[in-house]
Design a protein that fits this description.
The protein is an alpha+beta fold. Helix content is about 20%, strand content about 40%.
Length: about 375
């Protein structure tokens, strides 16, 4: 596998000119950029023109990762030309979040083949119900296929996100690329590092990803009591206090959910993934050192899943915008921790997201919030 990475900024243009001569039907181009590039798609169109045969995917972000650096208002790009592996792309559009399951299933059905090794999926971060998207993907895929990816971001604004479809940035879009080949190695890891606090409460009323009641009380009212003065900054301040979900007290599988919006009239909260009735929910808060340690552990788990990494390795780091808001000026420490744990010839791009997609440990993928999620790709 031949691998190159480059960046774009409005001030200095592309970091590499001319573009690396890697265009082919076996080339994957991944681009993560600021939400503003939906109004200024010129740089993305340049990529499309430079790589007409290649598979191009990408999405908007809440911050772009390039190596160990974090930037805003840029584009981070990886270009990987495979030696023996093959690629196939598929996309789907949603009009409302109710279309999410069908979109996920449709993508999976179009990509599934006997030699399918992995799928990288990038989704609109506001119009798509991530849990239903994942459920749709899982419904049509064998458990052996690794599915990773994330939900596009828009800083802490929650106004508009985009995903690359046919080389253009579009809202309401989901794009996926299937990776096929015996020599292909795809690793994955996802870790949080948040601390739980307060009582566990039963979800007594919810619908999909909208939470109405906890222990029979209005969910938003309870949540505001915990936030205190920070409640004035909702929904953005909710990124600092996500919810931990589990089916019951005997369930060791914890999923984290981030709030995307609130409704004062119904005293409800809308999350990036489903909040099933009957589940137990508990508030979480950050611990700086544990967040950074969690990022390092995600890299360790990635290596443990796929130890036979080739010399050239691509790391795709997708971390939650809530982690960035908590870490502040220390955000790059978690990016550095990830790259330090990976092989020396690893090149890394990524983004801060509204949701992360990865298996919890092994098996089928889940939607996560507030994690550092890694995907490593190489040919051995």
């Amino acid at each position: 596998m031949k691998l190159e990475t480059l960046t774009y900024s409005g001030a200095s243009g592309w970091s590499t000119r001319p573009f690396p001569a890697l265009d082919s039907k076996a080339t994957l181009v991944i681009a993560f950029g600021a939400a503003s590039f939906s109004e200024n798609p010129g740089p993305l169109r340049e990529l499309r023109a430079a790589y007409p045969q290649s598979s191009i995917v990408g999405c908007s972000t809440s911050g772009e990762i390039f190596g160990t650096a974090l930037s805003d208002d840029t584009i981070s790009v990886a270009i990987a030309r495979f030696d023996t592996s093959t690629l196939s792309t598929a996309s789907a559009s949603v009009a409302t979040s109710d279309d999410s399951f069908a979109a996920g299933r449709s993508l999976a059905e179009r990509l599934v083949r006997e030699d399918l090794k992995a799928i990288l999926v990038l989704s609109d971060g506001l119009m798509v119900n991530g849990s239903e998207l994942v459920r749709g993907l899982n419904s049509a895929l064998p458990e052996s296929v690794v599915v990773t990816g994330g939900l596009a971001g828009d800083g802490d604004r929650f106004k508009r996100t985009w995903v690359v479809g046919d080389g253009e940035p579009r809202s309401g879009e989901i794009s996926a690329v299937g990776l096929y080949g015996e020599r292909l190695h795809v690793g994955h890891g996802s870790k949080g590092g948040w601390d739980r606090f307060g009582p566990e409460r039963r979800v007594t009323k919810s619908k999909g990803n909208v939470l109405y009641e906890l222990d029979g009380k209005p969910a938003l009212e309870l949540y505001k009591q915990y936030l205190g003065e920070r409640a004035k900054g909702l929904p953005a301040t909710a990124l600092l206090f996500p919810l931990a979900l589990r089916a019951d007290r005997n369930d060791s599988k914890l999923l984290v959910r981030t709030i995307l919006g609130i409704d004062e009239a119904t005293q409800s909260m809308t999350f990036a993934g489903d909040i099933p009735e009957g589940h137990l929910a508990q508030l979480m808060r950050a611990n700086f050192e544990r967040l950074i340690e969690g990022a390092s552990q995600a890299a360790d788990h990635t290596l443990g899943r796929e130890p036979a990494l080739g010399e050239d390795t691509l790391s795709i780091a997708i971390s939650c915008v809530g982690r960035r808001l908590i870490l502040g000026e220390r955000t790059e420490e978690e990016i550095e921790a990830v790259l330090a744990a990976l092989p020396k010839r690893t090149k890394q791009i990524g983004f801060y997201s509204y949701g992360e997609i990865s298996p919890y440990a092994t098996g089928r993928c889940d939607l996560h919030n507030q994690t550092m999620t890694l995907t490593t790709i190489s040919e051995g």
